[in-house]
Amino acid sequence: MDARMPVPTLIAFGETLVGRFRDRDVLGGAPFNVACHLAAFGIHPVLLTRAGKDAPGDSLLHAMTARGLDTRGLQRDPVRPTGAVEIGEAMGGQMPGMPADQACDHIHAGMARMIGLSVHPAMIYFGTLAQRGDSRRALRELLDAVDARTFLDVNLCDPWIDVAALRWSLRHAHTVKLNEDELIRIAGYLAFDAVTVQACASLLITAFALQRVVVTCGAAGAWTLDAGGRVESVPGTAVTRMVDPAGAGDAFAAVFMLGQLYGWPVPQRLVRADAFARAVCGLHGAVPDTPEFYRPFAREWGLAGAPSHA
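The chain above was modelled as a monomer; its predicted structure follows.
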């Protein structure tokens, strides 16, 4: 990256959650994880979310400040608690769907719109979880107000799947990232007549005028199909150290978007996103505790000045 290039801004919209393990609490939620990764790689992410005026909300603010994240998009709710989910050992570290009526369900629409207009994002990242209550309206007002590329990160989490919200999200996305199982499930929801996963992706692009679908396949790698019918793929490689796979999808999304913002060739985006996601599998949790984790990637990818947080 040329040090003279302007730093792109990305809004990461959605849920922030505290994962309550038996022995510890861990901050998470895909938008938070993605914002942390992008900040470490020199992007200017604005996490647009809502937390309670409680101890977990204070912890979130502290974590954002420590990682150098822009805190303007963090709303505080005087009534509802910061999102929290109980995570059992049987879940393998994966955060389940969040209970209803928590602070992140009530992102204020007017404030979201103001943030969008003030920071001029090049891209908006959003998912399918934080589209309940007031947050649904907030996302709609944000996307209506801002002319930016959109990246939809699908998360189909039973029993909180809203097919209407999923359809709306697909209509407002330029790039969609999902795993192979989610692609097959969506094809079923939409009654696609397709016999292969690539045919499903092609029908999804046609039905919703998407520019690109990105499909992760776990140990088997990842592939992408664009509106012109071009397929690129990265084969699966062994994970050197497997500790916790929960943050791999968010890590992949962050680096793929990094490549979009900096104009990397598509094959390079896939290879780098896959490599970073596999490295994150060696962490306890979805984001590293220190910036040293990012430095080998930043050097290899030519990201001048990254990582930047203390």
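The chain has one domain: 9-301.
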